[in-house]
Design a protein that fits this description.
8 helices; Glutaredoxin; single chain; alpha+beta
Length: 195
């Protein structure tokens, strides 16, 4: 079973916006990765605005490389919780994604907080209208853990070597990277996709 607002093989991408928009913005993230957090904090609202205006649809793809290298299951469990948020709507999904990054443990290997369903529910409590008996059950019972595994497995099909990464139609855009790589400013991002 796949969450709402998913597309592709095994529903492995969560989309935000109109799936029939003229362009596709693919955003590749890892929920425990500080570089992905910086990129999301700098550009997520710009991505949402562009999709809301119908300029493109955003397709989110998630890796779990830190689960594999540092241990734990936080990335996969957080992706599964995002699936439950997607069932609640595109707005709650995007707001919960931002909330997860705001609450991301640092350094990433110090605490696998996202592996705890109670922590994921606590973070969801800050997203207006997201918490419900249905959402809470899906997070607590791990309803979408199998789907999250498919999402993570599908990530490799795109040839993305690290997160974060952004692809506009078929063009890879430099938006920032690991460590202290600066994140592109929203205005510069918009100029790049308009060129």
């Amino acid at each position: 079973m796949n969450p709402a607002h998913t597309t592709g093989a095994h529903g492995a991408a969560v989309y935000y916006g109109d799936p029939d928009a003229p362009h596709v913005l693919r955003v590749f993230l890892e929920l425990r990765d500080p570089g992905s957090r910086r990129m999301a904090e700098g550009l997520l609202s710009t991505f949402r605005a562009g999709a809301d205006e119908g300029r493109f649809v955003v397709r989110f793809h998630f890796a779990a490389s830190l689960d594999d290298t540092l241990g734990g299951s936080g990335s996969r469990r957080a992706v599964a919780a995002l699936g439950a948020a997607s069932d609640a709507g595109q707005g709650p999904f995007a707001a919960y994604l931002a909330a997860l990054y705001a609450a991301q443990p640092f350094p990433p290997g110090a605490d696998d907080r996202f592996a705890d369903p109670a922590a994921l529910l606590d973070i969801a409590g800050g997203v207006p209208g997201l918490r419900s008996p249905d959402f809470d059950r899906k997070v607590t019972e791990g309803t979408y853990l199998s789907w999250a595994g498919q999402v993570v497995a599908n990530f490799a099909a795109f040839g993305i070597l690290g997160t974060p990464a952004v692809r506009y139609d078929e063009e890879d855009l430099a938006v920032g990277g690991p460590d202290d790589t600066p994140v592109i400013a929203p205005a510069d991002f918009l100029r790049r996709i308009a060129a």
